[in-house]
Amino acid sequence: MTDQPPAKDATTTREFDDNILLQMLFGPHNAHLERIERQLGVNLTSRGNAVTLTGPPARVDEALALLDGLYLRLQRGLPVAAADVDAALRMGAGGNGVGETIVTRKRHIQPRSPLQAEYMRALDRHELVFALGPAGTGKTYLAVAKAVSMMIKGEVDRIILSRPAVEAGERLGFLPGDLREKVDPYLRPLYDALHDMLPGDQVAKKLAAGDIEVAPLAFMRGRTLASSFVILDEAQNTTPVQMKMFLTRLGEHSRMVVTGDLSQIDLPPGTRSGLQDALDILGGLEDIGIIRFTDRDVVRHGLVTQIVRAYDAHDRRPVKRGEK
Q1: For residues 180 and 186, is the Cβ–Cβ distance under 8 A?
Q2: What is the H or E stretch that residue 12 is in?
Q3: 131: Cβ contacts below 8 Å, ≥ 6 apart
Q4: Is 229's pLDDT higher than 90?
């Protein structure tokens, strides 16, 4: 048996029609092309309105499909920033994120990883979805986007966003203000997501009218939430009793999304997470969607991915005797 000689590099050239779009495709000082070169191990040379690709044949084909997909985004009026190039690389050859889209007043949102695309499909298909994984994977952001999109279409009447007000290092009783002022810092990420989807005046108007409600988990007790899109964020910090209470609020013509990160539990030692409890009890039900993100799906700054992986590696290392 003889070893096969290494495949020879392939070279191909692609010409593009619109020089203005081409500048956006290449990025400032060809930064997007350099990003693709580093990730795929190919050489990209631009001259005029053409790009010459050189490298292993499979990688050249992948880079060519990726460039075509990004150019298609630009033709459809969608932006191509560094994050969009990274998203296309994660999505695979030709991944342009146009197939799955959530439309809100301020943004058209496409998936930035294959699992985000699966999550978006789950939000379409299931009335109850659990989304698990580390920070930066889009769990809450995409859920809020879907909620706003469904409200715009008239598919739900209300959006209800909730979080458990767990004391992560601070005592609520010692914070200034009334109850709402004390819990608002815990709910701030939900407000931020809303303002990304809707103009500020519309957010204020809908909050005042009760069409959008942002409230701590304790405010959900005793209610039946019909014709609503309900999101429970940071659900790892619920107790089993709180989680059961929340899940049984689901009413007719409603959707419910539960997000959390089981590696970031702030409950007192010995307290079982309601999120883990719910997954153990309900995980076998066919009508429930469960999406489990990993550090590969982190879509924030590239350094966030490295930080998440470093902490995961640290948590998995053997504990030495005498070490706390």
Answers
A1: no
A2: strand 10-15
A3: 119, 139, 143, 257, 258, 259, 260, 291, 293
A4: yes
80 neighbors 33 (Cβ within 8 angstroms): no
* 149: its two tokens: 């999109």
Helix (H/G/I), strand (E/B), else coil: 263: coil
CA–CA distances in Å: residue 80 to residues 1, 153, 194, 260? 48, 27, 23, 30
Buried b / exposed e across 245-260, counting CB within 10 Å, b at 16+?
Answer: bbbebbeeebbbbbbb
- How far lies 66's CA from each of 29, 240, 302, in Å? 19, 45, 20
User: Tokens for 24?
Assistant: 């956006």
Query: Which burial class, exposed, middle or buried, applies to 99 when counting CB atoms under 10 A from its CB (0-12, 13-18, 19+)?
Result: exposed
Amino acid type, 316: R
| Lookup: tokens for 37 | 């070169």
Min mean pLDDT across 129-138, 163-172, 273-282, 313-322 is at 163-172
Please provide the DSSP assignment of 48-74 as one string. TTEEEEEE-HHHHHHHHHHHHHHHHHH
Q: Give kind and range of the element (H or E) at residue 160.
A: strand 158-163
Closest CA to 163 of 242, 229, 104: 242
H/E run at residue 231: strand 228-232
**Beta carbons within 10 angstroms of residue 164's beta carbon:** 24
Pairing of strands 10-15, 50-55: antiparallel
pLDDT at residue 299, as a whole number: 77
Going by C-alpha positions, the residue among 257, 254, 190, 259 that lies closest to residue 225 is 254
Torsion of CA 256, 195, 120, 245, to 10 degrees: -10
> Where are the alpha helices (H) located in the chain, listed in sequence order?
19-26, 31-40, 57-75, 82-91, 114-125, 139-152, 179-197, 200-209, 240-247, 274-282, 302-316
Q: Is the pLDDT of residue 206 over 70?
A: yes
Integer Cα distance of 111 and 96 in angstroms: 9
